[in-house]
Structure formats: C-alpha cells, structure tokens
Amino acid sequence: MTPQDNRDLFAIADLAREFGISTRAIRFYEAKGLLAPERVGATRVFRRRDRARLILILRGKRLGFSLRDISDYLSLYDANRTQQVSLLIGKVDERLASLETQLEDLQTTISELKEIKKLADDRLDKAG
DNA sequence: ATTCTTACA
DNA sequence: TGTAAGGA
C-alpha cells in the first residue's frame, strides 16, 4: 500500500503459501528454535531475516539434514561466520559419506535383484 | 476468517 | 507434522 512499506513483513500464512508448507510446520520450526519471529500480541510477525532462515531450513531439509543439524548451523548465523563454515563443511562431509554408503547399499541390492531376476527368467525359459 | 496453544497420533 | 479442540 504505502510506497516503501511492509514488503519485509510476513504473516505465517504468507510464508506457508510461498513455500508450500503448512503453518504447523513453521510453528514447529519455531518450537525447535530454528525460527524466532517477532510477536505483535500473540501473533507471529516474520521479517526478511526470518524468511531467509526459513529458506535455509527448507534447503537443509531437502538435502537430508536433520532439524538439529540445521539448528546448529543457524545458531552461528550471527556471530561465528568462520565457525559456521567449518560446521557446514563437517556436516556436508558427513552427509556425503552417508549418501555414498546408501548408494553402495542400493547398488548391492540392485545387483542381487537383477541376479534373482536372471535366474528366475532362466527357469521360465526352460519350463515354459 | 485467521491465528494461537495444547495434546495426541 | 496432521488434526482436533477451545479461545481471542
């Protein structure tokens, strides 16, 4: 409305709509300490800062990090930029290692299934 | 209508 | 996290 006004003020429903998540999820993140929106009475008022943090939360989730990991990372958002980067590197390495293990396990499972299928197909040929 | 908290699944 | 309940 006003020319330079509340483009940095968001209601919980605004963010929920924008990112396709529930208002419940946003409240949940706050309860876990990942978000700390201001309050006008009892109603939450989010600023660009909170929105930026939410984006980081969602990205972290998408990459498979726990809310705890994301929380630890966000906690250093203000002060230790360097420490934050170090933590990030550690978590990323951890995640990468985990994914690589999972990938190996999946490849093993895929190979086993293919072998089973091959044997089963052979039996079908001999029989049918 | 919308949001808030609490509690249970 | 969804859903329900009871208020503001």
Automatic annotation (TrEMBL):
Q: Looking at the Swiss-Prot or TrEMBL record, what is one Pfam family this protein matches?
A: MerR
Known InterPro entries for this protein? DNA-bd_dom_put_sf, MerR-type_HTH_dom, MerR_fam, Tscrpt_reg_MerR_DNA-bd
- The answer, when asked if Transcription regulation is one of the entry's keywords, is yes
The record's keywords, sorted A to Z, are: Coiled coil, DNA-binding, Transcription, Transcription regulation
Please give the PROSITE patterns that the UniProt record associates with this protein. Answer: HTH_MERR_2
Q: What sections of the sequence does the record tag as coiled-coil?
A: 89-123
Listed SMART domains? HTH_MERR
Q: Which part of the chain is the HTH merR-type domain?
A: 9-76
What Gene Ontology molecular-function terms does this entry list? DNA binding; DNA-binding transcription factor activity
Recorded hits in PANTHER family, A to Z, give: HTH-TYPE TRANSCRIPTIONAL REGULATOR YFMP, REDOX-CYCLING DRUG-SENSING TRANSCRIPTIONAL ACTIVATOR SOXR
Protein name as it appears in the record = DNA-binding transcriptional regulator, MerR family
